[in-house]
Amino acid sequence: MSLFDLSGKVAIVTGSSRGIGRAIAEQMAVQGAKVVISSRKAEACQEVVDAINAKHGAGTAIAVPANISSKEDLQRLVDETNRTFGKIDVLVCNAASNPYYGPMSGVTDEQFRKVLDNNVISNHWLIQMVAPQMIERKDGSIIIVSSIGGLRGSPTIGVYNVSKAADFQLARNLAVEFGPHNVRVNCIAPGLIRTDFARALWEDPERYKLSTQGAPLRRIGEPVEIAGAAVFLASSASTFMTGQAMVVDGGVTI
């Protein structure tokens, strides 16, 4: 059996109606997993579900819309997944928000709190809802999609970077707590990826040039290139890896 085989596994992927989250869900389905597509908009989720089921068979994917800022929505996401598939083996906390672009001196309290709530506290909530069954089975993989922004400063996305740095520590700390139960927690730290979420960065020719001229690969990444890292972290290929931040950035941070 392939080390990357996910047959029999059930994965929740938040923010999976587009971009990195969608690519992760699609590639996990390729490897045999049942996947739960979740984002705020039901129609967008269903579109992804229909595409995955058309390719891999009915029942491979289901849609459970949820707003990550709502604890009730997240609990419903977990409950619906358990009701439909009976368990959760893999959790991918991918959904995030960044309502502010500019120096930290200009951010409002409300904007700062929203970033921390959606990018850190919502991950904490969802993990606490899913972890008990993983601990009971002594098997599970939790993946937080962070960012290389959490490794460095920025004059424009500093608030977002603070939240992504917190995600690294969330993974490290939970890896310590869950490790004795064979439940692993890791982060993926993407660089600049061609998604709608990062459109402000890669659509700006000057910023794109600055972002890529020092990158060894001389380009930005594609969503599917992050999906490969997620499949690795979800699968048997990474069973001795926990508490880590896997940087996938075309070499930018080196």
UniProtKB/TrEMBL annotation:
<comment type="similarity">
    <text>Belongs to the short-chain dehydrogenases/reductases (SDR) family.</text>
</comment>
<dbReference type="Pfam" id="PF13561">
    <property type="entry name" value="adh_short_C2"/>
</dbReference>
<protein>
    <submittedName>
        <fullName>SDR family oxidoreductase</fullName>
    </submittedName>
</protein>
<dbReference type="InterPro" id="IPR002347">
    <property type="entry name" value="SDR_fam"/>
</dbReference>
<dbReference type="InterPro" id="IPR020904">
    <property type="entry name" value="Sc_DH/Rdtase_CS"/>
</dbReference>
<dbReference type="InterPro" id="IPR036291">
    <property type="entry name" value="NAD(P)-bd_dom_sf"/>
</dbReference>
